[in-house]
Design a protein that fits this description.
By secondary structure, the protein is of the alpha+beta class. The chain contains nine helices and 21 strands. It has a six-stranded mixed β-sheet, covered by helices on one side. It has a five-stranded mixed β-sheet with strand order 10-12-17-14-15, with no helix packed on it. Strands 11-18-13-16 form a four-stranded antiparallel β-sheet, with no helix packed on it. Bound molecules: calcium ion (CA) (2 copies) and zinc ion (ZN).
Length: 461
């Protein structure tokens, strides 16, 4: 069965949009992945593009991101307010499968101009911006590689001409979950309750089974426990993982990479015994910086499993953090326990972390950070399934970029505002009938123009 987001490169003469639309109307329960996925799901980086970032051209007119200006002008919102909704949406997917996310800074480089499909040091893999589309679609997203094999992969734009809210229409979290689903490689679902249903039909509080099945089909099933939990669950004092033998006898340190809080009920207990040549100070770090958006809560207990020697929480953290806890008066053969848990049971209570122990007097060992750098493909290509106008003859690449799109504004708004949009009338009517009173989530046109100029460097057609 073909995916509705069959986004292989479209030749100029083809109009794959036709097939895409018709397939969406077929009745079926589950639509899984599109065949596209991040090459390094262990760490997908997210950035918010600064206002003024060139997002492309729309019918030859440059468009610049104005997401911060728009959302910060919303009554009661600060940057943290709306970014938290988007990051919660990101984490909602991470809870279900083998994905971790990190927030990074963004250079403001023009869309599509980066050198990496993933891991660009100048920007996130999923760059989030916005502009006023001039229509009633809510947002758009580009699928991950390989269909989009360059920097534009995964990028999301919100229609800043629309009004967003939190907990009411148009609910930002609901729309963000949908677009991030595309940015992770999902197509649409026909299940009305699914986040990946192609039209906005109300506030959604989380993923439906359809969404979960789909994302797990792309990233290797349910989120995988770390090696310790996989070997023997360490969710209690009694089953704590013993790390004593892993403490370096010279440096009196240990680094534990690739630890994971895998579900909201996962607790990770560790224990160790101070070596005979211990210093009097114990330092424990639990790091999510550069590893995930997990908000960790860490507690060091004495041997009695009750006395708290130190504790720290990253509740409410914006990004990954590193918690450093210290105990003093340590004596040889003293037994300790460390508990690592989510700071809360929200979507931010899941993710990867690393831990170091230091009973010596030197520095603590470095945590291993994922290297996700993946250069742009050559030649650069976008899938172009949503292309709505033919590239000019001699265009060197397929430049339109595959983005996943939702149908369609009701009542002919598209025709009014975008007379050139090429959806065939029969398809358009079919959607029209299905979508009355709903709101399209994705932009389904204009991206051909939007991207072509950037990738060719010509600026416009
Ligand atoms: Ca990207
Ligand atoms: Ca555990
Ligand atoms: Zn969509």
């Amino acid at each position: 069965m073909r995916s509705p987001h069959r986004l292989r490169g479209a030749s100029p003469a083809r109009r794959p949009t036709v097939r895409l639309r018709l397939e969406e109307l077929e009745a079926r329960a589950v639509l899984s992945g599109t065949g596209n996925a991040w090459p390094h799901p262990e760490l997908v980086k997210v950035s918010f593009v600064p206002d003024g970032t060139l997002l492309g051209t729309n019918n030859g007119v440059p468009i610049y991101s104005n997401l911060f200006a728009k959302f910060n002008a919303h009554a009661g919102w600060t940057t943290a307010t709306w970014e938290d909704q988007i990051l919660k949406a990101v984490q909602t997917w991470a809870q279900q499968t083998n994905l971790n996310f990190d927030v990074v800074s963004d250079s403001g480089a023009s869309t599509g101009s980066g050198s990496y499909q993933q891991g660009d040091p100048q920007m996130g893999d999923i760059r989030i911006g916005g502009w006023a589309f001039g229509n009633s679609n809510l947002a758009m997203a580009f699928l991950p590689p390989p269909v989009d094999n360059y920097s534009i992969a995964g990028d999301v734009s919100f229609n800043t001409g629309m009004t967003y809210n939190i907990g009411s229409t148009y609910d930002l979290y609901t729309v963000a979950m949908h677009e991030i689903g595309h940015a992770l490689g999902l197509g649409h679902s026909t299940a009305g309750g699914a986040v990946m249903y192609p039209t906005y039909n109300g506030v959604k509080s989380g993923l439906a089974s359809d969404d979960i099945t789909s994302i797990q089909s792309v990233y290797g099933g349910a989120r995988t426990a770390d090696a310790y939990d996989a070997a023997a669950s360490n969710n209690t004092f009694a089953t704590a993982t013993n790390l004593t033998s892993q403490i370096n006898p010279t440096t009196l340190t240990s680094v534990q990479n690739n630890l994971d809080l895998t579900t909201t009920s996962d607790l990770d207990y560790y224990t160790f015994t101070a070596p005979a040549n211990t210093s009097s100070t114990l330092t424990v770090t639990v790091q999510t910086t550069g590893l995930s958006l997990l908000r960790q809560a860490v507690t060091i207990y004495a041997a009695d499993q009750t006395t708290v020697l130190a504790s720290a929480s990253s509740a409410g953290a914006y990004d990954g953090t590193t918690q450093t806890l210290t105990g003093t008066g340590v004596t040889p053969n003293q037994v300790f326990y460390v508990k690592v848990a989510g700071a809360d049971t929200t979507a931010f209570g899941t993710g990867r972390y690393a831990m170091t122990l230091n009973l010596g007097t030197g520095s603590s060992p470095a945590v291993t950070l994922p290297n996700t750098q993946t250069l742009n493909g050559s030649p650069i290509q976008g899938g172009g399934s949503e292309t709505l106008s033919a590239p000019p003859p001699g265009t060197p690449h397929r430049l339109t970029g595959a983005h996943a799109a939702l149908p369609v504004p009701a009542h002919g708004a598209r025709h009014t505002h975008h007379p050139a949009h090429p959806l065939p009338s029969h398809s358009h009517r079919a959607h029209h009938a299905a979508l009355v009173s709903h709101q399209s989530l994705d932009q389904v046109f204009a991206e051909g123009n939007l991207l072509r100029g950037l990738v060719t460097g010509k600026g416009r057609r």
